[in-house]
Amino acid sequence: MRTLLSRLHASESHRLTKRLLWPVLIVGGLAVGGTTAVAWHMATGLPSLGGLRDYQPSLITKVKADNRQVMGQFYVERRILTPLREVPRHLIDAVLAVEDTRFFEHPGLDIWGILRAAWTNFRRGGKVEGASTITQQLARSLFLTPERTFQRKIRELFLALKMEFILTKEQILEMYLNQIYFGHGAYGVGTASFTYFGKALSELQLHESAFLAGLLKAPNTYSPYKNYDLAKQRQEHVLGRMVQAGFLTEPLAQEASETPLPFTRQSFERVAPYFLEDVRQHLVNEYGEAMAYKGGLQVSTTLNIQIQHLAEEAIRKGLRELDKRQGWRGPLRHEEPPATLPEEPPMTFPAFGEIVEGHVVTVSQEEVTVLANDLVGTITLADMLWAGRRLSEGASVTDAKVIPIVSARQLVKPGDVIEVSLKSTHNDRIRFRLDQTPLVEGALIAIDPRTGAVRAMVGGYNFERSQFNRALLALRQPGSAFKPIIYATAINQGMTPATLILDAPVVYEEEEPGKTWKPENYEKRFFGPITLREALRHSRNAATVRLLEQIGVSRVIRFSRSLGIRSPLSPDLSLALGSSGVTLQELTATYGVFANQGLALKPYTISLIKDQYDNILENHEFDPRQVISKETAYLITHMMMDVIQSGTGKRARSIGRPLAGKTGTTNSYRDAWFVGYAPNLATGVWVGFDSVGTLGKVESGAHAALPIWTDFMKAALNMLPVLTFSVPEGIQFVEVDRQTGSLVDEPSKGTTTEVFADGTIPKRPTSRPADPLDFYEFDQLDQAVETR
């Protein structure tokens, strides 16, 4: 009976188990299937990893100056690609110890690591340790967004497993070390080493490697520039993990912990922004944005950093001085004076000459106390007197009012916000000067005429204010700076520096009925028959117009094209006075042809471009062309040397070098130019308003542009050897009469030494010397017969 009951009970239990087992199996299968389906759904659409072996991270394009110093960079992510073999062992160990100790053991997903992190976080009551492997982090960085969702985590796991199947552990680790972000714009270990320690990766020490590894968890949080103590604690944590992982002994870790961390804040100075922008545009146009910003191009340029600094300083100084001559525009605004002043001076002072805002605190008759950049200083009345020339808002510079200044109270009051610059810091006394950011613009370009290499380029007063490059793009009237081209055309046609031309009144009818044009000289008077040398030396307008009429406008235009002028030129006599707009670069390059004995070389900024594998993409090739004879080039150069020695450019004579050049001024003083050269450097300077407004009375090329040119050339030529202009074989020096240009037997007070090309030396006069009145009377008779 008992056996029967037992059998019945066993049978009932079996039936019950069967009834319960099927639902469990069904539910379990559904759960597994559902989980698999969800995981499969989340994993669909994953990016293809087929090209991962050939993956190249976004790299920096480096732009280098002529001395191979890096002067600029273009990038999306600032990264220096570093092979794994070049990464120090202690840096690899530090990264593995703190990020993924079992990296070489797991298949991309570390189960034991997940359990360990969960237990650690449970014990400490919060998330203090992550469980993502290096492979997962790399997958997230390369292919996924930083969002924190369950779906993204599943996709990250699948990607990590696929990556482990495709790549070796060493390939994954190398990718990771080059891809990951270290803070402060540094991607990859190579850039991080330079960013924080200013040294190459191979020079890193153990204590520095431990710090870099510690940044990976939260670069912003552990930045030493924001929280040094926290960064130091993180470094010590990494050293402790290295000991636990067996990568390091306790004594070495202690020694590394006690070694100071020599952080250097990397401040990348932006050199020659207008030049760099021109290079950037070339790279984008030729190779596309992706290659320009991510391709790791190596760009060698012609720019000389020292000469560039001199150019920027000359433009800054010259435009500020001009702006002060134009007048003070008054305080920027008025605010309540500061209630309290800093008791201690700031850690850093503004640079000398840097214009900053200053808050007027107190004003007396003789000085003003200002607070600028947390620095308290004074401005003496003597450093404010220039503001006696006052401009009202929106007024033309010609409408400035001059007020005699006897007290600082006439200019400012407490609460005014003004512009100042640091003058001195002697004996703990801070001195400022009243200053003003110029509204006027300017440009400078310096070219080696022997090669065409652009050595310096300044396209405006401030690149942040205006990115328009006035050295390359602005079409402005050159005024008399165009005249050397006309005189060179005449020389090329067989005239000589001693050829006479009449400087006398002349009237031309314009196309509009009833309107006439009468060219005038700067001095508002005329000088009769003068030599071409004299006409160019003193920039005689009337004589130049007559010369252009004599040799022909079309001939001058053709000659200009051969020299390199590509801008449209007006086919009329106004061309004699520089009425057609040209760029500063093309006019400076044209003068460079004269400096280079008639050889034309196209200006260039890029000498070599290589890709990241050192393949040459672009290599500048010289293509010199003899566009005018050596004799013509020398004769016009010799004539322009006189412009500097005793003409409109004599301010530059103080440089004490063989120089040639020419001033240029347009109507109403809207443009001021000076273009000139030594045998090894041709430089052009332009000054003006973008609105084409007047610079002010007497602000001619000699007054507004020449000082900038002189300051720059005096300093730049000190870096270059002294050279003289070579005299071609076909040039002869002979004595001629100053007034008539005719040959004389012996030197006297009325004679001078003149230069001639072979076959153009004048003959001795067979009759009396010409009387200047002859030319004048003849011209008057001619005008009476026909008004031109």
Characterise the protein shown here.
By secondary structure, the protein is of the alpha+beta class. Strands 6, 7, 8, 9, 12 and 13 form a 6-stranded antiparallel beta sheet that branches. Helix 8 (206-215) packs across helix 9. The relative contact order is 0.08.
Proportion of strand residues = 15-25%
Helix amount: 25-40%
Count the helices. How many?
20
User: Segments where pLDDT lies below 50 for 5+ residues?
Assistant: 30-43, 772-788
How many angstroms separate the termini?
149 Å
Q: Compute the number of strand runs.
A: 28
- Radius of gyration, rounded? 38 Å
What would the principal axes of the Cα set say about the shape?
globular
* Mean model confidence by pLDDT: 87
Q: Give a short account of the largest sheet.
A: 6 strands, antiparallel
**Which structural category do the helix and sheet elements fall into?**
alpha+beta
Q: Which oligomeric state applies?
A: single chain
Brief digest:
The protein is α+β, with helices and mostly antiparallel strands and about 800 residues long.
